[in-house]
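Why should sequence recovery work at all? Because a backbone constrains its sequence more than one might expect. Tight turns favour small or flexible residues, buried strands favour hydrophobic ones, and helices have their own preferences. The token representation captures these environments compactly. In the example below, the structure is given first.
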């Protein structure tokens, strides 16, 4: 698709309201970013799917806006998270890693059936980014499994729906200080 046309389409439909679904307002192409002031870990929950195609969501790793710097454990696509037709509603997975403040979490979505429609979308690839939508206020994360230039593109972002929960984790030094403080208190009590 022509980049100018794609930019126009994206600007006109930057916020997708999924009325009647459990998702709020998602922003097409919005990165999933950890808080800028705290190290974090993340859990992702499968919220459902209304897709005819079967697809799988992977966690690639984390880094900056366009690069996966720290790769998730797993195969070529990182950590396999969910299959939109086989995963159980409400199932959740802890993403591999503790993420630095302000990191962008990167995902891939692979359409695996029917085999004639095999396609792969990645958040670290500029042309693929708009197949993912994110609402930072709710953690809602959604997938559109058709490319914008595909003649049957529907832009409904209900092909795979998730919720991402970010939790702060203590800095490594604070755990050591907590351990030393506890040890000092134990020694004082014994005297």
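From this structural description, the recovered sequence reads:
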């Amino acid at each position: 698709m022509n980049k100018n046309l794609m930019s126009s389409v994206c600007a006109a439909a930057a916020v997708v309201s999924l009325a009647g679904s459990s998702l709020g307002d998602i922003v097409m192409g919005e990165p999933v970013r950890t808080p800028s002031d705290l190290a974090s870990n993340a859990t992702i929950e499968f919220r459902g799917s209304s897709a005819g195609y079967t697809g799988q969501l992977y966690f690639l790793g984390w880094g900056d806006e366009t690069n996966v710097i720290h790769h998730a454990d797993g195969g070529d696509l990182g950590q396999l998270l969910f299959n939109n037709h086989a995963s159980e509603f409400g199932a959740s997975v802890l993403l591999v890693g503790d993420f630095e403040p302000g990191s962008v979490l990167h995902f891939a979505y692979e359409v695996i059936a029917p085999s004639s429609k095999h396609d792969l979308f990645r958040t670290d690839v500029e042309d693929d980014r708009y197949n993912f939508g994110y609402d930072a206020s709710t953690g809602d994360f959604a997938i559109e499994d058709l490319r914008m230039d595909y003649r049957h593109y529907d832009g409904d972002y209900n092909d795979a729906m998730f919720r991402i929960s970010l939790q702060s984790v203590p800095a490594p030094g604070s755990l050591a200080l907590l351990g030393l403080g506890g040890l000092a208190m134990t020694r004082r009590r014994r005297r």
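A few observations help interpret the result. The chain has one domain: 3-185.
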